[in-house]
Amino acid sequence: MTSLVDFLTDSVLRGPTIGSMLMCIATALVGVILLIRKETLLGEALSHAAYPGIVGSALFASLIFKTPGADEGMSVILGAFLSASLGLFLISFLQKKVSLHSDAALCMILSLFFGVGVLLASRLQVTHAVWYKQISLYLYGQAATLVDRDMAIYAVLVLITALCVFFLYRFVQWIYFDRAFAKSVGASVRKVEFLVHFLLILSIVIGMRSVGVVLLSGMLIAPAVAARRWTSRLSMLFFLAALIGGGSAFLGNYLSVNLPLLFHRESLALPTGPMIVLVGAAISLFSLFFSLESGLIFRAYRMRAFKNRCLLENVLKRLWKEGEKREFSFSEIVHFNQLSSLSGSLLFFKMRCQGWLQRKGKGRYRLSSDGWRRASRTVRLHRLWEVYLVDYLGQHADRVHRSAEEIEHLLSYELERELTRLLKDPKKDPHKQPIPNDHESLLG
Amino acid sequence: MNPYWGKDFFEFFSLLFLRLVRAMKGDLAFCDLASDEVQLLVLAGVGISTSLIGNLLILKRMTMLANALSHTILLGLVSAYLFLFPLMGASEEGIGMDLNLLMAAAFFTSLFTVLSTEFLKRVAKVQEDASIGLVFTTLFALGITAVTLFARNLHLEADAVMGNVDALHLHDLKLVGFVALLNAVVMLLFFKEWKITAFDSRLAASLGFCPLLFDLLLLFQTALTLVGAFRAVGVFLVLALLVFPPLAARRLTHNLGRLFFLSPLLGAAASVLAVALSRHLLSVYHLALSTAGLLVFILGCLYLLLLLPSLTFRKKKGIIL
Amino acid sequence: MHALEIEQLTVSFDKTPVLWDINFSLPTGRLCAVVGPNGAGKSTLLQAILGIVKPLSGTIRLLGEEARKVQARVAYVPQRSSVDWNFPISVLDVVLMGRYRKLGLFKWPKASDRDAARSILKKVGMLEYESRQISQLSGGQKQRLFIARALLQQADLFLLDEPFAGVDMATEKEILELLGKLKQEGKTLLVVHHDLSTVQNYFDWALLLNTALVASGPMEEVFHQANIFRAFGKRHALLEEVARLSGDVL
Fold it and tell me: Which end of chain B is more exposed for a tag (fewer CB within 10 A), N or C?
């Protein structure tokens, strides 16, 4: 098995690998813009619409050159570009002049163009089988057979893409933060849209050799979706997406060579497209679950932690209401709060550890001064919120208790200060009960 | 020996007509069907089943989802083949023969696609278009990899893309007929429910219907239709059959009922034309082209033809029926 | 008996609260306006009453019963902008949808249903358009179409979402007359309305909403400067912050 490093150093492997990485960096960058504009499905339609251009240009070139050679790359790129542009034109025509919904228009052009491509390909298959084999590489992607001359062309195209993205950055930022404002700026939006669509077609034309037209939209979407989980800053988004795109391309190429070996199929070379997409998707999935802020795992953990805290605070409140000097036994605490013996024991243990429960003799406990203060705080927040609801929002006093039962666990220090200031430090809640003092409720 | 060999476009139809008359008189049995006729019937059947479903997909804005399904179906087929085939014992060569197998494939496909998309949208809070795109490209990539590694012999990749009309048997006719019939029955049975859930799902919900159930049913029907169609036209081109006949029929009428009647007609007509044209091109110009590709081309031309009147006359109507 | 009794209704989409702890009741036979700024949850309130949207908490009682049991007696007239007017369907077919609940699954509308639909169309003055495709109607006609559908349902409670939006004076008068007639027949109407200048003239009951309830009750009592100010003033920042926090952990 060739090692990972070989892919960057070996004279045969490194060209295609690096080329592939550059291509996917380009698609990832454009993909971020598409994601923000919610236009990823347009990418899907246009990448399929490029297919007849690829085949058509091959048909045309096959009439001149017997075998695909030096200029095949250029003509294919040109053909794909023209075909996708025509597709784009027709899509907007259908949407504007025929009032078709975007869903239907996209699918129409997608299937029509792809079908025409299939039609042309069936001809090519018979007349110039060599050419047919060559363009089949563009269906699912095969970077491995890239030649140096093609690489140069692609490198230039990637550079153009990067420059355009850089130029568009300011506009994308507008859309990202305030769509309505961006819309109100009218004319520039149209020019931006033109440039974005140009970029999209360019990225398709760049990426199709590596990922293939069928799967290209995957590499537009996956890096952007993954990057979004780790950051909301636009510049970081572009950077991370490019990183993930390049990384996926690298690993994808690696896998396409080595995976068949794992299954004892030495002579097989998997198309690079599916492998790159699978890696990209795996990274996305990982990001969805494990990213720090919005990752599902951490969200689930936060929710659990919150529920436990609510339970604890409610128990403390209950004990507080019994009075400062009151003593309890363990079983009293458990039954009083209707806890199961397991959760009761856990809570009891936690309260003891935090020092909120004091031992007062054999089997008798009571709230320590720390515990007292901790409980007062929750009660204070509860009653403050009730005052807010009644005085500020005009709700009925008999209706505010339930809401306060939930909100008391949520209010932060800043919010508490804000409430105190807004309500002018009230001393009594709507039910005439005293509100514990600020000092009493300070956490130790 | 294929009686259609060497016939051009018009000769094709006169021969077809003659043989049809003979069949009605009882002189021609099913097993005497020429391969061109089998292709014609299967494609027409596919055209009918897709058009029926396609109407609803368009009205409910679910065509991209159908596109997604047409990609993930590959994985469904491979899964059915790899997991169920050994369990279900002997069946004729390869995939495409066993009805149960294919139903299972359709079921898996719609299940995978819907569950993953919904998971991404609701739980992971990914935006809708990205969810669909991510799901189907990933599942398709998985499918292609699985086929290449484990099921190379099935030639699924090539056939899956382009279809292979020349490999169609009478058996395929049974499958296609079954799907077409099923689609027609489901359409008729729930006609008013489809109408209301597509037009105003909120009203439908408030009136006691469950739009979600109907969406799921439609998705399953679509997957089944795809399964029935993939051998003939390949999974990617089915989308054209789903989308073009209904949109073309829409140029002719405003009435939902008539849409459901006209679009299968258009779909079937295009299929017949495609087979005839394919034969013509082969006989006269010695051009062997993909019949499925021709079908899509014809559908495109048909749509353009029906679109032109409303474009040139500038009237919103241009409705004949 | 009250047409509508809502207690502690809270609805949220994703992390934003759309309706917060709504408590109000509406007696029968009233023509009630729902007023508030954009995004205040007015349409959501209607959808929650219809059972289309699931609330986070709270109860809704309609006409004295649990909401779910009497869904058939509630009719919904949606916003004109929320409908796909290119849908291949005729005027008569849309009105007939009002009968679908009664028909249940599988059954097709009968001749008697069609006649009932036609007579309703006559009542709203649209009988001549019965076979037109719906995009061919004017704004006012589109509004009347949905009211006709609601009428066919023979409901007791009508929920209308901005029926007066974008119609001319003549149509506005016509719609108002229709609503007035319904009120006289003892029906209750809850109407989302956007035009503050006409609220007091058209309606006799008001509900001022700004995510939380600002005020509800008879028009003369409720519709005054202070309340209007609170309804249309900026959303309470504190409330927003708390809601955001709750979205993170709930």
Answer: N
User: Would you call C72 an interface residue with chain A, using a CB distance cutoff of 8 Å?
Assistant: no
CA-nearest residue to C22 within chain A is A395
Mean pLDDT of B102-120: 84
Q: What is the DSSP letter of A82?
A: H
In chain C, residues with a C-beta closer than 8 Å to the C-beta of A418 are 238
CB pair distance less than 8 Å for C105 and B203: no
* A439: confidence class by pLDDT, cuts 50, 70, 90: low
Q: Which of A311, A385, A402, A412 would best serve as a mutation to test chain C binding (most C beta carbons within 10 A)?
A: A402
Residues A239 and A308 in one domain: no
CB-CB under 8 Å, C236 with A302: no
Distance CA B46, CA B241 (A): 8
What are B185-218's pLDDT values in tens digits? 999 999 989 999 999 888 888 888 889 899 999 9
**What is the per-residue pLDDT for C235?**
55
**Do residue A289 and residue A300 come from a single domain?**
no
Q: How far apart are CA A13 and CA A250, in angstroms?
A: 11
* pLDDT of B240 strictly over 70: yes
Nearest to C83 among B125, B200, B209 (CB): B200
Alpha helix (H) residue ranges in A178-271: 179-184, 187-211, 216-230, 234-262
**Average pLDDT score over residue span A7-14:** 77
Strands (E), A92-139: none
Residue C68, judged by CB atoms within 10 A of its CB (0-12, 13-18, 19+), counts as exposed
B243 touches chain A (CB under 8 A): yes
User: A186 — alpha (psi -120 to 50), left (phi > 0) or beta?
Assistant: left
Q: Which of A104, A116, A218 sits opposite B297 (nearest CB)?
A: A116
Distance (Å) of CA A301 to CA A82, A307, B97, C110, C250: 51, 10, 49, 57, 11
Classified by CATH at the fold level, domain C2-83+154-249 comes out as Rossmann fold (3.40.50)
Which of A302, A392, A399 is opposite residue C23, by nearest beta carbon?
Answer: A399
Is residue A442 pLDDT above 60, yes or no? no
Q: CB A281 to CB B126 under 8 A? A: no
Q: Which of B191, B207, B254 is the closest to C101 by Cβ?
A: B207
pLDDT at C214 over 60: yes
Average pLDDT over residues C222-246: 74
In words, the CATH class of domain B9-312 is mainly alpha
User: Given an 8 Å threshold on Cβ–Cβ distance, is A393 in contact with C246?
Assistant: no
**Mutation choice for A interface testing from C9, C19, C21 by most A CBs within 10 A:** C21
Contact B97/A at CB under 8 A:
no
- Quick check: B244 pLDDT over 90? yes
Give the three-state DSSP class for C205. strand
First to last CA, chain A: 62
Under an 8 A CB cutoff, do C213 and A302 touch?
Answer: no
pLDDT of residue B159: 66
Nearest C-alpha in C relative to A419 = C238
CB contact under 8 A, B192 and C103: yes
Per-residue pLDDT reduced to its tens digit, B39-48 = 899 999 999 9
* pTM of the complete model: 0.86
Question: What pLDDT, in 10s, does the model give residues B112-134?
Answer: 888 999 999 888 889 999 999 99
Q: Are residues A17 and A130 in the same domain?
A: yes
Q: Give CA angle at A375 (A374, A381), nearest 5°.
A: 95
- So what's the pLDDT on residue B233? 85
Residues A175 and C118: their CA atoms lie apart, in Å, by 49
With beta carbons under 8 A apart, name residues in chain B contacting A296: 123-124
pLDDT of residue C246: 73
Residue A46 included in any domain: yes
Task: Report, as an integer, the average pLDDT of B12-31.
Answer: 83
Pair A396, A436 in one domain: yes
What does the pLDDT average to over A389-403?
A: 77
